Amino acid sequence: MLKPILNDQEKSVLRHLVDGAKHVVVICHQNPDGDAVGSSAAMKLMLQRMGKEVTAIAPNPFPDFLRKIPTAADMLLGDRHHQKIDRALAKADLVMILDFNMIGRMGEPLATKVAATKAKRVMLDHHLDPDTSCEVTISHPEMCSTCEVLLRVMMDMGWADGMTLEEATALYVGFMTDTGNFTYASNRPEIFEAVSFLLTKGIDKDRIYRTVFFSHTEGRFRLMGYLLYEKMEVMEELHTTLMTMTNEERMRFKTKNGATEGFVNMPLEIEGMKLSIFLREDTEKKGLIRVSTRSVDDFPCNELCAEFFNGGGHKNAAGGSLRMTMEEAVEVVHQAVGKYENLLK
To answer: Which residue did the predictor score with more confidence, 105 or 53?
Structure first.
């Protein structure tokens, strides 16, 4: 039996806010991943089941394979649907912030618009150092995903009793993707108790895996082969790999933004590797390099990203960004791994 994670005050305030809301906006972070989209979809479906009018927003487009999550294809995009988003925020009496720890992570102009709205705000997240300006902030960095946090909240509030198959499916995607299909950040027994609960709701976890991971384009596979063969640098003594990708290379293989989701995990399959770093040019902001890192065991990706890449995250999965050329970013990576040489050797 899973233990409650909410105290009485959190339950009281959360119930008051949700019961009193009629128009709810659900927002996830920029460059949404499976956990961001899955938690947003599950939240939207649950609130609709409770009779609320719900608008779900993603700051920018996400990979096509995540559009197969129930209701995900209906999410408004912050860089495209400006008028619809403005109308939704004007009507909103409650904003649910999912899978990020500070307002700025939704990017502009959404961050400014949400900060200006009179609606109450609730944050559910699993990243370190959460923003506490919301009426309710429920943050559990020890949990594997925001979908786990949301499921536990639903259980504590009694909202999980009527959970639909679609809600359970969306939640499972977050568990699955934010743990690399349960290959990292997934040793807590509570994770599998929670997944067992989702199985009782009828999810087919094998089909969900195939739907998410077996639905890529030929271009993605050719790009993956090119990056692994031509662009991967292996620093054997430091047990580290580095891959880079420019927008010209992405377009050469006719792939969309988000097509490289999961690429950063692959070099860790090389025996002995402890750290994988992936640099890619931002598709919209010239001069911005996006940084993704993954590690195994005790190497602190979050500390590395906070110190060198203006970012953060979890111990084994973190990211950031650099405003410079790709060549300069590669130099920063070499400086960073040199600084952490003792932990990597």
So the answer is: 53
- Name the one residue in this structure whose structure tokens are 């040489």: 341
252 vs 246: CA distance, rounded Å? 10
Class (C level, CATH) for 218-344: alpha beta
Q: Are 9 and 1 in contact, with CB atoms under 8 Å apart?
A: no
pLDDT digits (tens, 9 = 90+) for 240-268: 999 999 999 999 998 877 788 889 999 99
pLDDT higher than 80, residue 1: no
Phi, psi angle pair for 20, to nearest 5°:
-85, -10
Whole-prediction pTM: 0.86
The whole-angstrom separation of Cα 159 and Cα 335 is: 49
* Both structure tokens of 240: 């580290």
Query: 288 pairs with which residues across the strands?
Result: 323
Distance CA 72, CA 85 (A): 16
- Indicate the average pLDDT of the chain: 94
Each domain of the chain, given as residue ranges in start order, spans 8-213, 218-344
Q: Roughly what angle, to the nearest 10 degrees, separates helices 34-49 and 146-157?
A: 20
SS3 for 202? Answer: coil
Q: Which of 336, 337, 334 lies closest to 310, judged by CA? A: 336
Assess if CATH 3.90.1640.10 describes domain 8-213. Answer: yes
218 CB neighbour count, 10 Å cutoff: 10
Burial of 153 (C-beta count, 10 Å sphere; 0-12/13-18/19+): buried
Residue 249, amino acid: E
Phi-psi map region of 9: left, alpha, beta (phi>0 left; psi -120 to 50 alpha)? alpha
